[in-house]
Amino acid sequence: MDLAPEELQFLSIPDILRESISIPKRSPKTFYLITLALIFPLSFAILAHSLFTHPILAQLETQPSVDRAKTRHEWAMLLTVQFLYLIFLFAFSLLSTAAVVFTVASLYTSKPVSFSSTISAIPKVFKRLFITFTWVSILMFVYNALLIGFLVIFVIAVDSENAFLSFLAFLIILVLFLGVHVYITALWHLASVVSVLEPLYGLGAMKKSYELLQGRVKMAFILVFGYLAICGLIGGIFGTVVVHGGESYGVFARIVVGGFLVGVLVIVNLVGLLVQSVFYYVCKSYHHQGIDKIALHDHLGGYLGEYVPLKSSIQMENLDA
């Protein structure tokens, strides 16, 4: 990012996308290795896990319920696959975030960038991201509990033919999904960047993320909703053609479409991680919170065991706040 910090606040959504897409050109080898080692496995797992769960679900739907031993075995298989998938998804999601955010910040501060230095920094960055993710997960649990509660109310209202209650429950569900879910996702993504680039993590990073989002909520909503919509579209096409399209599409066509969609999702995830990094600097600039590149350079060096001053300008900024 060659723009001055005070100019970043004026970037529009197209400008943020253009800026994000141009970043890998500054260190193509590093981003190529990050994409190959972290983002590709993540994207492949997101789409391919349904290939493993679909046959199990199909057997659970078709086999007689009297065969309890086989049913228990199928359920055990399904839960095991889902558990392993969630662990893999969680790990590679945080690893990809740590790698991209650290690399972008290093380029921003003109710090030497390499895949090995990024990998060396990940263990300390991962710990901070894990704590932040844990608190976000608690928030998401509360959100999901509310969503499930209103879904139950909606089903009951439909069964009882209560038009007013059905409409009210549906409206609340729509607001929860389109509004709250997207906002929490934006909060999480920005808190992840804060956890890497500032001496904050967990609740502190979430609080700072909330403060940075003020005045930029609409932009964050559009970016996150667009990302989720594209991922949903890719997942929908993959499910229709690759997972459930055995009768309508040949094996070769399904392989080609599946490979193409995985490639598209890899690009979408990489750009999404770059956008969340750039958006952090945009929010900082909007709130006139200057970023001392020297202090940030030293902060990033701390992950690699380099000398870090007792007080940086980033830390002083947080104390003044």
From TrEMBL:
List all membrane-crossing ranges. Answer: 31-52, 83-108, 129-158, 164-197, 217-243, 255-283
Sorted UniProt keywords? Membrane, Transmembrane, Transmembrane helix
The molecule here is called: Polyadenylate-binding protein 1-B-binding protein
User: Which lineage ranks, top first, belong to the organism behind this chain?
Assistant: Eukaryota, Viridiplantae, Streptophyta, Embryophyta, Tracheophyta
